[in-house]
Design goal:
alpha+beta; globular; two-stranded antiparallel ribbon; 59% helix
Length: 495
Amino acid sequence: MASKYDGLARIIIQNVGGKDNINSVAHCVTRLRFKLKDEGKANDEVLEQTDGVLQIMHAGGQYQVVIGPHVTDVYEAVLQVGHLTGGGEVDLDGNPVEGGADDRPKGALNFIMDLVSGIVQPTLGLLAAAGTLKGLLSLLGFLGVMTSTDGSYMVINAVADGFFYFLPIMLGYTSAKKFGCNEFVGLAMGAALVYPAMVNSTAGEALGSVLGGTPFEMSYYHTFFGIPIIMPASGYTSSVVPIIVSMFFVAKIEKFFKKIVSSLVAFFMVPMLTILVGVVLTYLLIGPVASMLTSLVLLLFNVVTALPVVGGTLAGVVVGGLWQVLVIFGLHWALVPLSIANIGANGMDTVLVGKVACEMGQIAVVLAIYLKTRDKKVRAIALPSIVTGLFGTTEPAIYGVTLPRMKPFVFSCIAGAISGGVATFFGAKIFVSGYSGILALARYIDPNPGGMGIMSAVYAGIAMVVAVVIGFLLTWFFWDEKGWEARKGAKKRAA
């Protein structure tokens, strides 16, 4: 049966030296692993420029073609097109495995970042599209062309904001493919995390709290057979990490039930039991952990802010430097409600001033990469990421460009930290909730007679310029896009 990957399979076979040059082929979770008679016959350059191929690696006596989440489909196409007998899925030692094992970068942080960016990668096109629409709506709202209550605005926003709101559903699918789980189980898991009744379950009067009298005190509003159901204040909408962590365990749960459930009823019993156990564990385990981490972020911010003399400026450095990391893990919600409450009670806020320019630092880093690289695939992702980031939506830039490379992501965090310190040092303040990115400058205009006027916006603008300059220069002088592939390959071989 013909596959949509047949064309890619033919290109791969041709450029590994042809069928006669292949001793064997197997695959792990992300890579085709060839053992070739003569690796000198393979054409790295052509393959790396081929759509559908992410990278070429030479490691462990194997010629590895990095495909990503669709590797199983491409592997089947290679076998079909080349009339080859495959070795199935293998681990690093070439041993057959059930479910597979991926040779991710060593080190917890590198592993997590690489895993997250890899799972999000298939959604990058939609991320960029939805982010562009959100930016357009923000601009039209800022200019007064339409309001959030207009029907036209609401329809377009359903497309733009809807994608981000239900992002856990999409990531449930890609995570399931990554971890070797039923993709529809992943979709169901994501849907359970953003189910409206659960999202709104924290409304009303709390039934009680746990860890009372500590900085990690958490309220709960419902129980599961007497066990408190503790969730982050915002639920799991628009989050990334919770669904990925859930699917890591759900994939193992599914494999367990596949082994013990009779084949007579496995068709419906395996997914039913998998989803049931997975959702319960997610709400009873991941929820409390996420809430504790959120409380830890708030505690850290309060401790830093309370430091005499330098507290305010240092808080800006911390928020600006860590904001993008907090967003990835969904922990930024510890500070957002506090900012909104401050504006409501005092007419202004300083909590989120530190993040005023982190988006500008991010797109400056991407701009430098865009100008330095000649890789058409990288440029195709980078350009729309710059546009969406300008209006405050940096997910395409983070997951598509900077996070996979790690060092540029660190540069963007450094730019955010320094610019955050600049903004808080000058005394910038937020007076209304709303826009991010370049349009956020309007939030810093003091509407009160005798107040700061536009000076707070001027300070915010200075911080943005600082972020752009630092992010761009760090990347321009200290990032080698051409040598990235070689360095990454060397690290793999050393490991």
